[in-house]
Amino acid sequence: MADLALIDAHCHLDEMARRGVSVVDALARAHRAGVHQVVTSGDGLTDSQEASRLADVHPEVFFTVGWHPINPRPPTDSEVEDLRQLLSHPKAVAVGEIGLDYLLRPGHLETPRAIQREMFSSMLALA
Question: One GO MF term, please (predicted)?
């Protein structure tokens, strides 16, 4: 039986880099474990831009653009346009991380549901 090539469909390589974890080492460990491609998820404009840069540097990295529901405000029209432009990148594979996060978790930011719905609508329009 041939080796199974796995894809990690949701990770945050940008967060690893911010925490001082070597992205190169993390990708090498993933490859040794059978993961041959990864999709790093943007959860705001800055993270989506960083995901694009990581995809440019690493052949096995693809990315999504998005606006996470715990962001305290909806994206501006300019930010949505910047996300739209990122989607034209050949390694942009989806709009995400998006959604409605209605789970209450102690110690986590709770974005009002009306704002979450507005953000979700803008991301659905982007998709």
Answer: hydrolase activity, acting on ester bonds
Supply the mean pLDDT for the chain: 92
How far is C-alpha 10 from the geometric centre of its chain's CA atoms? Answer: 7
Q: Which residues contact 93 (CB under 8 A, 6 or more apart)?
A: 39, 62, 63, 64
- Name the pTM for this structure: 0.90
Q: Residue length, the chain?
A: 127
The gap from C-alpha 119 to its chain's centroid, in whole angstroms, comes to 15
Q: How confident is the model at residue 26 (pLDDT cuts 50, 70, 90)?
A: very high
φ/ψ of 26, rounded to 5, equals: -65, -40
Assign domain 6-126 to its CATH superfamily.
Metal-dependent hydrolases (3.20.20.140)
Res 111: pLDDT: 87
In angstroms, rounded to a whole number, what is the distance separating the alpha carbons of residues 71 and 48? 14
Cα–Cα distance between 127 and 112 in angstroms, integer?
A: 23
**pLDDT above 60 (res 2):** no
